[in-house]
């Protein structure tokens, strides 16, 4: 009996031991599975059905700086202000009105300049400052955009001396031009004072040839008549392979017989010009140029905002504003197209508003090959869509909050259309550019 009793106890103990081991294994395995479940299981039905959220860019306002309007006594008249670009900015809506008026000393402050997308250096007879020239050069080189007009030529030439043209051959022996500093220099073609790019002309209407394709489209013309309200204005005398001339005129050149002014400044002086021709040939005079330095852009214009501006002159000035606020993306795409072996063949510049959100253009592709469509705009909170249609009616789309492009590897010949739709804009008159480019052979 005892042996059977002991055997029963042994069997029971083994059974309990095995049962405990089984439970322990099951428990540990369950615990491990529970801990590992999130890594081992696939997406749940809810996760698979949840759409991916694309975060839109946060609206960023334009950061603009405008030099305080310069007041001067123009040829004996009462003091007046000129090139009040702020009036034009105000007319473009809320997105452009929040500009800062800055002083001349602020042009020396690189840290302050770098807080702006565009710095407007409006026409002024203030003597160019070396520290301002150095700061503006650094500002542009690091990605800033500079607007300068008329009598700011000397400041821009000092900041970017490599863009100033070298003296060209004199018109003839013994023919000189006397500048505001009283120094007589040989007349050159094109006629400039060697130091500051003055072109001598009477005030009044000047006919100009429009060389920039986008500006021709905006004006719907290849020519424009500009009203220069003062004589003795500065031509856009810059040159080099990076200089793009947007506007130019042709003029006969005259000798300058003198300038009456105690300090050489036109503010208190009187211009004396003889009617003797310096040359019987006309010279090409640049009026509006754009050039890049480093990562940034400079736009210099002889013509600027005046007391009165015609409709065409207003369109020109608005085009300049839109060109300025899209200049960085324009510089970037020029590099991209060059690296990818594309040549731009058509360019346009538009501004989108709530009441005018879509633009459609056509392009006739003369022969089959690579074709690229670009929409260029700053990442400022806008959402745009690009749609292209082939001659056969095939449609392609691209949409986003930064510059868009569609590349067609083997585009057929014929008429293509492209439409840009502003789905949302951070402010009225949101500027963007379009480009159509051919692949290089």
Give a summary of the structure in a few sentences.
The chain has 441 residues and is of the alpha+beta class. It has ten helices and 23 strands.
Question: Which secondary structure elements does this structure contain, and how are they paired or packed?
Answer:
Layout: H1 2-40, H2 45-49, E1 64-67, E2 70-73, E3 79-82, H3 85-91, H4 94-97, E4 100-102, H5 110-113, E5 118-121, H6 130-141, E6 145-149, H7 153-159, E7 176-178, E8 184-186, E9 198-199, E10 204-210, H8 213-219, E11 223-228, E12 233-234, E13 244-260, E14 270-293, E15 296-301, H9 311-325, H10 327-339, E16 342-352, E17 358-365, E18 369-376, E19 383-389, E20 395-400, E21 404-411, E22 414-424, E23 430-439
Parallel strand pairs: 1-4, 1-5, 5-6, 6-15
Antiparallel strand pairs: 2-3, 7-8, 9-12, 10-11, 10-13, 13-14, 14-15, 16-23, 17-22, 18-21, 18-23, 19-20, 19-22
User: What's the shape?
Assistant: globular
| SSE class | alpha+beta
Number of strands: 23
CATH class of the largest domain: Alpha Beta
* Count of distinct structural domains: 2
Helix share of residues?
Answer: 25-40%
Describe the fold and architecture.
The protein is of the alpha+beta class and 441 residues long. The chain folds into two domains: 262 residues, 3-Layer(aba) Sandwich (Rossmann fold); 111 residues, Sandwich (Jelly Rolls), CATH 2.60.120. Helices cover 26% and strands 37% of the residues. The strands form six sheets. Strands 4-1-5-6-15-14-13-10-11 form a nine-stranded mixed beta sheet, sandwiched between helices. A four-stranded antiparallel beta sheet has the order 16-23-18-21. Helix 6 packs across helix 7.
């Amino acid at each position: 009996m005892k042996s059977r009793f002991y055997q029963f106890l042994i069997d029971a103990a083994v059974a309990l031991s095995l049962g405990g081991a089984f439970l322990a294994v099951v428990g540990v395995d369950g615990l491990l599975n529970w801990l590992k479940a999130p890594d081992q299981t696939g997406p749940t039905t809810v996760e698979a059905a949840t759409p991916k959220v694309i975060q839109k860019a946060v609206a960023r306002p334009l950061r603009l700086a405008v030099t305080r309007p310069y007041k001067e006594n123009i040829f004996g008249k009462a003091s007046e202000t000129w090139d009040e670009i702020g009036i034009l900015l105000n007319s473009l809506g809320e997105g452009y009105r929040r500009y800062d008026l800055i002083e001349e000393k602020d042009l020396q402050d690189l840290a302050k300049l770098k807080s702006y997308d565009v710095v407007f250096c409006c026409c002024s007879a203030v003597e160019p400052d070396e520290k301002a020239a150095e700061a503006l050069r650094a500002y542009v080189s690091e990605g800033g955009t500079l607007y300068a007009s008329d009598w700011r030529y000397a400041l821009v030439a000092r900041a970017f001396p490599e863009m100033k043209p070298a003296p060209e051959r004199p018109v003839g022996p013994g023919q000189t031009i006397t500048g505001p500093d009283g120094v007589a220099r040989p007349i050159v073609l094109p006629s400039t004072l060697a130091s500051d790019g003055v072109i001598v002309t009477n005030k009044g209407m000047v006919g100009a040839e429009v060389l920039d394709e986008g500006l021709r489209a905006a004006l719907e013309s290849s020519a424009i008549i500009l009203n220069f309200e003062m004589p003795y204005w500065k031509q856009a005398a810059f040159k080099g392979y990076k200089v793009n001339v947007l506007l130019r005129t042709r003029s006969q050149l005259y000798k300058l017989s003198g300038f009456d002014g105690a300090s050489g400044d036109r503010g208190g002086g009187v211009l004396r010009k003889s009617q003797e021709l310096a040359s019987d040939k006309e010279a090409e005079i640049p009026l509006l140029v754009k050039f890049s330095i480093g990562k940034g852009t400079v736009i210099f214009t002889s013509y600027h905002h005046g007391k009165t501006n015609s409709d065409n002159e207003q369109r020109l000035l608005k085009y300049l504003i839109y060109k300025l606020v899209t200049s960085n993306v324009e510089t970037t795409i020029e590099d991209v197209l060059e690296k990818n072996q594309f040549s731009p063949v058509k360019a346009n510049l538009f501004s989108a508003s709530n009441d005018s959100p879509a633009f459609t253009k056509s392009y006739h592709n003369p022969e089959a090959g690579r074709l690229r469509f670009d929409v260029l705009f700053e990442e400022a909170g806008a959402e745009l869509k690009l749609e292209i249609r082939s001659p056969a009616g095939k449609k392609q789309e691209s949409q986003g909050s930064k510059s868009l492009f569609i590349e067609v590897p083997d585009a057929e010949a014929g008429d293509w259309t492209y439409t840009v739709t502003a789905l949302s804009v951070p402010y009225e008159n949101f500027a963007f550019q379009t480009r159509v480019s051919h692949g290089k052979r």
